[in-house]
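Board work, copied verbatim: ECF transporter S component
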Amino acid sequence: MKNIRQLILTAIFMAIILVQVLIPFLGYIPLGAVIVGASVTIIQFTVALGTIFLGLRSGLILGLFWGLIRIWQAFTTPFSVGSLIFMNPFTAIGASVLVAVVVNLVVRPTTTATNVRVWQLGLAGALAALVNTAIVTLFTWIGFTFFHIDWHQFINLGQSQHFLGWFLSIVVGFNGIFEIIAGIIIVPIIAIPLLKVKQRLYK
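↓ predict structure ↓
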């Protein structure tokens, strides 16, 4: 019975991720830099919340699911730097799966609404954003530096060496800051009621 309940709840979180991907503003908040696909991503917080509520195994499933959707989007949307980046499975899947791993280190599966600390949940949200941004940035840099990906063949933004610095400054300096702030706010607000539900479900 417990395994069936866990499976159903995991499927619900997967459905939420799918809805966030498909419906604008529920999963990605665009920041105006449409050409490079710059937007504040909040789907990592769904993965984080699923990990807090259901544990690491379900969190890894949610991260994998989101990563596979990222790859699907990359190959089915018109070419942009954003879609090109997530054609790399290490970028798409690695970032989303590591969100669950890091969150699980901060908020253990035994955490309940009575013993949780708000700062733990805020830290989990901040780390979810930081890990997602850091891994995407790292593999973007690796792809550019070691595999000589020529970005300006896909979009008309001039020489690629100038573009990389511009792109990374947007992702790290702009998106990253907003996502960390969003994580600190969103995760505690939603996680505390979820943990109260968890206490009732898993008595």
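The longest strand covers residues 28-30.
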